[in-house]
Amino acid sequence: MIISNTQEIPGKTIVEFFGVVSGSTVRAKHIGKDIMATLKNVVGGELKGYTALLTEARGEAMRRMSYQAEDMGANAIVNVRFATSSVAQGAAELFAYGTAVTVE
Amino acid sequence: MDVLSYFITPLMLWGAWISGGILERRHLKGLLLLESGSREVLAITIEDLPPDWHVESCELVMGNVVISQDYFKRFAASIKGIFGGNIGVFEPLLERARREALIRMKGVAHARGYHTIINVRLETTTLARSRPDGKGTAGVEILAYGTAITLSEAWRALPGGGGASARPFA
């Protein structure tokens, strides 16, 4: 599965469109990490637990998106976009979407 | 005990001011070092490649960072917010986070053997506070992503080829 955020896959041509594919996941960190982050919030700087959480969750969203594209019979996803929103206290939704295509 | 509680907030503010400043300076120093190392990856925001570039393979790469402001600067910003205007203390924070995210994206691309990233985009998201009373953690996530590409060997060997400009230190 080739994934790209450009309108077409560089060096290849699109032969078939399958439509929009998307994947999303909602994640929250366990309380221990939240307490650590609260402490870190006093001195500022990177909240490593949250960075890891979002990286992981975004990977999961992309995996779901590519499974969906595979089911359709596509071999690439172009023009991938990401959206992140806070849906509840301490939880975030990671959403990835793109266009499933076949390239040659 | 009552007397002590008067001192806790100023003490926390002072502690956050000192340690936040130290952490910020250390991060900026680290960024300069890392940026000099990531210069061999060319990141551009344009999407349409020159027609004579022959791309062999491509892959989506990204880098992210969640960063938070220290207690003292948040306090300073809330006071500044009453009067409005530029909230200067937040600008370096976001700038640091963006540079860090770009470096991480370039690092991922470099580790996978790519030297050029096209169509780079930067996204900013505010994460929810972890407690309902509006206190608790608040972070800002910066995400940098783009399409890493490799150019074909034959083209890279041409005089003035993108390979040379993309890898000035290689």
Q: How would you portray this structure in words?
A:
The complex is a heterodimer of chains A (104) and B (170). With 104 residues, chain A is an alpha+beta fold. Chain A has two helices and five strands. The radius of gyration of chain A is 17 Å and the shape is elongated. The two termini of chain A are 12 Å apart. Chain B is built from five helices and four strands, in the order H-E-E-H-H-E-E-H-H. Chain B has helices at residues 2-37, 71-83, 90-111, 153-156, 162-166; strands at residues 42-43, 55-68, 116-126, 140-151. A four-stranded mixed sheet of chain B has the order 1-3-4-2. Chain B is elongated and about 70 Å long. The chains are: A alpha+beta (104), B alpha+beta (170). The A-B interface holds A 2-7, 9-11, 34, 37-38, 40-48, 50-51, 54-55, 58, 62, 80, 82, 84-92 and B 12, 15-16, 19-20, 23-24, 27, 47, 49, 53-60, 62, 64-71, 73, 93, 100, 118-119, 121, 123, 125-132, 136-139, 141, 143, 145-147, 149. Strand 3 (45-46) of chain A pairs antiparallel with strand 2 (55-68) of chain B.
